[in-house]
Specification:
- With about 260 residues, the chain is α/β, with parallel strands linked by helices.
- The protein has helices spanning about 35-45, 80-95, 115-120, 145-165, 170-180, 190-200, 205-235, 240-250; strands at about 10-15, 15-20, 55-60, 65, 100-105, 110, 125, 130-135, 170, 185.
- Strands 1-2-3-5-7-10 form a six-stranded mixed β-sheet, with helices on both faces. It has a four-stranded mixed β-sheet with strand order 4-6-8-9.
- The longest helix has about 30 residues, at about 205-235.
Length: about 260
């Protein structure tokens, strides 16, 4: 029986490695079903002492994950925003706190919450055609699942601001230059490369690995804890603005938004 409560998050286990696949066609978006499912899966893997590493990837050939399902935000309902912000935070923080090694196999577009889930992993392997962005401000939103905090830690303030404030999209080679991903591989090879790296974890004491990971994260977690809370609060606050509704609906209607700055 699968440890996943949803077909949108699939799990296969081979030895000490679990492969977790985001499978929510057509763009592997996150919603109120897939986010709690990811959290439940990681908790189950965390409780299984036979699992030393997990690999996260997207189903299909085009998308790793395109982020949140924006149809959920079309009405500008603050209650929905709060529910989604909490679901994002809970799922991705659970992933970040996984005791073993987590590796994102980025096999296509990683946008918004799709990039943020990769940022919550320990290591990122990207295929050469992959594209990465945090374009939330283009639709009147903001990254609410760690993007404003973790991206700057990896690439520095300047490039974090280019990606978040200017909406710049980057390819895999640039991402590697900036330190956003650790390795770039040919199309179709991210999963195999990530699995091979995950297998190497088994050569080391899983207890020692978990201790090392806690120590590496200790200073970082102290620094970003309040920032993660602030992200979610600011995200919900945007749902009191005209620009939030205009941005999301313009995207869904495939037109240019008319910003009101209020």
């Amino acid at each position: 029986m699968s440890i996943s409560p949803s077909e949108k998050i699939k799990v296969t286990i081979d030895g000490h490695v679990a492969v977790v696949t985001i499978d929510n066609p057509a763009a592997n978006t996150w919603d109120v079903e897939s986010l709690p499912a990811l959290k439940a899966v990681v908790e189950a893997l965390n409780a299984d002492r036979n699992i030393y590493a997990l690999v996260l990837t997207g189903a299909g050939e085009k998308f790793f994950s395109a982020g949140a399902d924006l149809t959920l935000f079309a009405d500008g309902d603050p209650a929905v925003a709060e529910e989604m912000a909490h679901a994002f935070g809970s799922a991705f923080e659970t992933l970040a706190d996984f005791r073993g090694v987590s590796i994102a196999a980025i096999n296509g577009f990683a946008m918004g919450g799709g990039l943020e889930v990769a940022l919550a992993c320990d290591i990122r392997i990207a295929e050469t055609q992959a594209q990465m962005a945090l374009p939330e401000a283009k639709v009147g939103l903001l990254p609410c699942a760690g993007g404003t905090q973790r991206l700057a830690q990896l690439v520095g303030d300047g490039w974090a601001k280019r990606m978040i404030l200017v909406g710049e999209r980057i390819g895999a080679e640039k991402a590697q230059q900036l330190g956003l991903v650790e390795e770039v591989v040919p199309t179709g090879e991210a999963l195999a490369t990530a699995k091979a790296l995950a297998e190497q974890v088994g050569n080391q004491s899983p207890v020692a690995v978990a201790a090392c990971k806690r120590l590496v994260h200790s200073a970082r977690n102290i620094a970003i804890a309040s920032g993660l809370d602030a992200e979610r609060d600011e995200f919900v606050q945007l749902f009191s603005t005209e620009d939030q509704r205009e941005g999301v609906n313009a995207f869904l209607e495939k037109r240019k938004p008319e910003w009101k700055n209020r």
